Q: What sequence folds into this?
């Protein structure tokens, strides 16, 4: 029984960490960290609505987070201040979600497990959904890597090549929503953005090419997942916070080593 729990926890964390690390490279390049926060915070509203309507939480999270991603993209294209939009929507979505969880009919929501993750609730079915989501993220990034990278580096160059930068932005936004939907059980709505940013930020100083950065970020994400599980067992702490702590420690080690080597 303990072995099954450890396998589920380890594989769930590994799947989320790999998808988050790959997608996180674009989040870092595009400075979309706050965008990830807004999408993740909307997940709480998705949980409340799905439980009130008798729908599976991952489906409700995917729909609400996807709508949030589209809304942010549309408002940003209309020339509104991006920082202001993200600040209002990120905190507004979290507040509305917490309010909805308190007043909507249906089973009471254990907010702590959705905010910080609870790997104890991950079943084999959930594990299948997580790895299916990871596969989708990996395949979409591989299939559209050239378009996404060109649109990230230079929207004007992308237009000249016949690409639509808005399509790239919307695609990344929807992938973020999918990641939130499958990863919220592992690290929670408040911490999922950390898995997007920290491994990618760690890999940035080690890589010489975008593809190299993605590969290194995936490796750091995997180490964070495995190390976080071990840290959680040793410290009797939550797996989600422990995973982010392991990622932060790796970031500190990589940053210090890189700076010392540079000197």
A:
């Amino acid at each position: 029984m303990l072995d099954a729990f450890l396998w589920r926890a380890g594989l769930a964390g590994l799947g989320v960490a790999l998808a988050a690390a790959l997608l996180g490279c674009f989040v870092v390049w595009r400075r979309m960290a706050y965008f990830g926060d807004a999408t993740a915070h909307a997940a709480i509203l998705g949980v409340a609505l799905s439980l009130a309507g008798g729908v599976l939480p991952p489906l409700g999270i995917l729909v609400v987070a996807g709508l949030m991603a589209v809304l942010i993209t549309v408002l940003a294209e209309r020339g509104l201040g991006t920082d202001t939009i993200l600040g209002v929507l990120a905190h507004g979505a979290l507040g509305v979600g917490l309010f909805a969880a308190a007043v909507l009919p249906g089973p009471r929501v254990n907010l702590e497990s959705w905010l910080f993750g609870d790997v104890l609730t991950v079943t084999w079915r959930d594990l299948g959904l997580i790895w299916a989501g990871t596969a989708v993220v990996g395949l979409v990034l591989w299939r559209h890597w050239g378009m996404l990278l060109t649109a990230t580096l230079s929207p004007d160059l992308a237009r000249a090549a016949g690409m639509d930068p808005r399509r790239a932005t919307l695609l990344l936004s929807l992938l973020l929503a999918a990641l939130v939907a499958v990863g919220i059980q592992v690290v929670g709505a408040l911490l999922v953005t950390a898995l997007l940013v920290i491994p990618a930020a760690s890999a940035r100083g080690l890589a010489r090419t975008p593809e190299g950065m993605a590969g290194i970020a995936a490796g750091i994400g995997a180490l964070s997942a495995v190390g976080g599980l071990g840290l959680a067992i040793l410290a009797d702490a939550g797996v989600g916070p422990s995973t982010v702590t392991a990622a932060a420690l790796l970031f500190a080690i990589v940053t210090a080593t890189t700076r010392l080597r540079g000197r």
The chain has one domain: 2-262. Residues 1 and 71 are 44 Å apart (CA to CA). Residues 2-30 form the longest helix (29 residues).
